[in-house]
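Schema walkthrough. Field components (list of strings):
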Amino acid sequence: MSGAQGTNLSPEESAVVSLPQEPDLHIFAAIVENKFGVLARIAGLFSRRGFNIFSLAVAPTADPSYSRITIVVDVHNTDVNQIAKQLDKLVNVINISELHPSDSLERELMLARVGAADLEAVTEVISEYGGEVLDHADGEAIVSVSAHPDRLDRCERQLRPFGLHVLQRTGRIALRALDADEPAVGMTA
Amino acid sequence: MELTGAQALMRSLEMSGVEVMFGLPGGAILPVYDPVLDSSIRHVLVRHEQGAGHMAQGYAHVTGKPGVAMVTSGPAATNIVTPLCDAFMDSIPMVVVTGQVAMSAIGSDAFQECDTTGITMAVTKHNYLVTDPADIPRIVAEAFHIATTGRPGPVLIDLPKDVSNATMEWYWPDDVDLPGYRPRHEVDPAAIAEAAQLIRTAQRPVIYAGGGLLKARAAESLRELAEMCEIHVVTTLMARGVFPDRHPLCLGMPGMHGNYTAVTAMQQADLLINLGARFDDRVTGNPAHFAPGAKVIHVDIDPAEHGKVRVPDVPIAGDAKVAVEALIEALRPSDGSAATDEMADRSAWKSTVSGWQEQYPLSYDQPSGGHPLKPQYVVEQLRDHTPDDTIVVAGVGQHQMWASQFWQFDHPYTWVNSGGLGTMGFAVPAAIGAKVGRPDRTVWAIDGDGCFQMTAQELISASAENIPVKVGILNNAYLGMVRQWQELFYAERYSEVYLSADHPDYVGWAEAMGCVGIRVESAEEVVPAITKANAVNDRPVVIDFRVDTEEKVYPMVPAGGSNDDIILGPEGDADAALKGSAPS
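Field assembly_structure (string):
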């Protein structure tokens, strides 16, 4: 797996890897049985089939016997249908669907420890993205922003000049918009 | 009724219809071996856990029933990983039970602990770690359901020792409830109609028959379709026997060592009707150059095979037998006229194909005087001096290709081999499993000397259990296929491929294992030795056929090359390296 949420990316690299409009990033939503080892099965499948996970978010659904997984996949050199069909072969995967950015709602959460010698300026940036300052001391602040990953990328770039000391992003989660058509790829979601 | 987990496991296997299991006890699986003594299931004790897995595979190949193996934890589990992977690649239904250390010890690097479910995740259709004895009947029922339905495959059940020892209240589930597992059996009528239309209009159609037809028990349906439409059939390595070699429409095996007509007919086809095959690289050669003018109908029960290698014009997801019967239905005229009346005129194609068959038959040069002994001659004599429905089992390498090429397969389920994984050492244990599954049949393993040395110890199991298999070793004193590649692609620089014809002494070794051992050094000794072997029915027989060390397998398509660049015989060797690279 390649996580793109590390802190060591230059702004340029960051801009390249996290552009949500990149044509080779696809979002899959899978409902899986909430059992131990299921995540390993999915991660193992991606690794042995040569599929590249860009980000992954997992948590139980309203029914705790199932989990919903949002997987963002870099489908460069990979057939999107192959990914969906191979995933669907896993016995613990109940269903899988592709979510198209145009008809989905996406959110991602970011926590960051930033330089805050000028706390007011940091607060101004964060407020612009609907985030908040959770903590501040000794010229540093911990901020929290929840937004479309696209907006988070912009927020991240604006925070860089303050000094981005620790960055943790959760990877995106997504739901199909209420008025969206049913998915083209395979199964129900 | 209260049972221990161990008793519940054996009871569940009995309820699943298991008649035979192959295995070897050890620490973590000890509790289960006690109720083995009281079970109706026959247990065949192996000498190495890999043997148990391949025996289960051989059994499954010839019976269509799931093969069952049981071994202990740690090294036993790792020893059975190869058969699991082999079964996964060739879609063989198999259920393997492994012992595991007690739940409380898992993760502590306990004696003979290994993460068996973690290790086997990539080589099983599904696997289970049992954590509660009450789950055992449900898990066993699910395991057999998963192993045998949809695209068959191996399922592993890892059973911790304390779970075996704990008790549960016995039950047997009426049904399995697997919300994430819905194998698709039925086919889409629209896709069938579209496929039927392609079949009607095709001028150069070829049926590309794969192992999925055998899994679907579809040999008769295939024959009906081929005869009704008068379409030639190639049978892949996994599908040998699904369509009779003696049938006038049969073109035999395609691929890297396929015959010229099968390979070239596919290359020049305008329609490939793929029934349960997966466009394996050993069939397609370089996929970019494979059958460039062909439209593709692809029937596969696993929809992930559609477009994995070649994008089909008409994908049909579903059971191969259901699909073939739907095609027959769609193509059969309602007025009783011949189906071919509604099809394109294929007379030119048929005469082209028969011209190739005439011009480029499989052949080899039989030296005058019969020396050196040719391996192909041995296979031909075995073929001609054994019962028609003999089951043939091969390992992997040159001998496997010669067996597939020179045997005549006229019946389904008479050919057992390791196709996808290419597991050397497969033949001896798989033959034993096949003989256990079909004791009424003569079972011959055609093996290589390199392969035989990997798993020969299972002949001790066969002797001990009175399983009279016969093994013909095509002993060329080399890892022959590797030698062939080194000759053709590495400028005859032979690196680590010489084995010696005399060490081991195969006759002495066979006898030490309780078998009859026979050595054959010349052509005139071949038939008498086979006759003698066929007459032995109370123990295994091993014939050490000393064959030509330099014989190579032809035809050959160099890997990475196009199937158009097929090399027919030694006269083409000079071009081999130009046409492709060493096979990978």
